[in-house]
Amino acid sequence: MSQKPQEQRNLWSLTVLCLLRVGPMHPYELQRRIRDWHKDEFLDLKRGSLYHAIERLHRQGAIEPVETTREGRRPERTVYRLTETGQRQMLQWLEEMLAKPLREPTQFFAALSFLPHLTPENVQTQLKQRTALLEEEIVELDAVLKTMTPQIGRLVLIEVEYARAMRQAELAWVRSLQKELETGTLRWDPEAVRRFGAALPQSHDVCSIPNPRSQS
Prior knowledge:
The chain folds into two domains: 5-99, Winged helix-like DNA-binding domain superfamily/Winged helix DNA-binding domain (Arc Repressor Mutant, subunit A); 107-188. It is built from ten helices and two strands; from the N terminus they run ααααββαααααα. The protein has helices at 5-8, 11-22, 27-36, 47-60, 84-99, 107-113, 120-152, 158-183, 190-199, 203-206; strands spanning 63-69, 77-82. A two-stranded antiparallel ribbon has the order 1-2.
């Protein structure tokens, strides 16, 4: 296992490892489990991504084929199982992901950082649209939890519960920001941002970073 951690660790690979710990499966069954168990809440469910993860894990020795079968004119299906190496990798990865918070910037985070470029009225309009979409997502997640929890249990859907809590927290925060914009309690002064930017020293005045190529 000579690959760097960032090359190994993507959410598709983690999902394959965890599902194969339940039992050997072929890719089609993995894809069905991902949908049925709503693991696509954090995955971009594309068939190619799944197969790429399987190929990568197979090369690493984390999974291995058990058998290849064919039914009628259907394509061959290779059943994979988790190896001891893959199980160690998966458990270590899960432990680190749970223990160590990571900064995961989002597009919303980036938009907020440049908010003064818009007018307060425009921001209010966009936030109203975001509020409506967040409310829809919360309703959908509530439906998933209500329907699926009695069938497969809360533990299997804990990430859906977390996603719902995060949407609810974001909705509350966005609503509070909307209220500040409506009442004028959030001071809107784009010129102050420009003055702040103009007052900052130029990058070459702050520090001088040597070019490694210029050094012998």
